[in-house]
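Subject: Sanity check before I submit

Could someone independently write out the C-alpha cells for this chain? I want to compare against mine line by line before I put it in a report. The sequence has 246 residues.
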Amino acid sequence: MTIWDDGIALDAVFTKPEGKDRGPVCVLIHGFTGWKDEDHILAAEQAMLEAGVAVLRADMYGHGKSGGQFHDHTLFKWMSNAMTLIDYVRGLDYTTDIYLCGHSQGGLAVILAAGLEHDRVKALIPMSPAWKIPENCRKGIMLGLPFDPDRVPEDTPAWSRGILGGNYIRVAQTIHVEDFIKRYKGPVLIIHGEGDLSVPVEDSIELAKMYPDCTYVPIPEDTHCYDLHLDMAAKALKEWLTALQK
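---
Independent answer below. Compare away.
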C-alpha cells in the first residue's frame, strides 16, 4: 500500500496474525540505508505475528520504494514519517494498542516518536539503536568521519548508498534525544548484538538505564543486523511481546 506524508509516498505493508480481527499493531522501521524487506526486519515481523501482534512496516523517506531522495533525508523527515504511520495505525478498526519497533537509525526514529506520542504508544522496541547520532553530529562525527561541527560539509559519502546532504547533520545537531527519552514511561525492550561494529553495544547498555521500565537483551558476539544469531533476536522479541499482552 501507499501511505502519504506531506506529498511523499511511503511504500508500506500491513500484515496481521491469522484469525485475529482486533489487536495491537507495531509500526516497524528499518535503519539508515536500509529498507522494509531486509532479513532482520522480516524476522522481527514474523516474531511479532507469532506473538499475536500485527505489523505495519514501511520504507522511510529516501529509502527503498518510498519517495524522496536519500541525499535529502533528515531525522525531521523520518520523525514526520513515523508520526504519519502512527496516525495510519490509529485509524484502523483493527488497532487496540500501538507499539513501535525500529532498527539502528529506525531505533532512533522510534525513540523520538515515542517521546512525541508518549500518550499513544504502549510499547517501544529499539533494536541496535543508533541513538547517539545527534550527539556525534554535535561533536563533529558522521559515519565515522570527522568534520568541523561549526562548518557542516555540504555532502558526506554514505558508503555505497551515495551522498548524504549537509542538512542531515544540521538537523541532527538540534535534536537532544534525552529529552524524548524522558517523556516515555512505558515498557521498553532493547536488543543489541555484542559484536556490533556500527553502533557500540555500550550505547544500548547506557540507554537501558534511562528508561524506568526497560528490558535489555544482548545477543552474544552478534553483528549490527544479527547476521550470526537472528533467531535469538527474534526469540527475545517474541517472548517479550507475548508476556506483555498477558
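---
OP: Matches mine. For the report I'm noting this point. The two ends are 31 Å apart (CA to CA).
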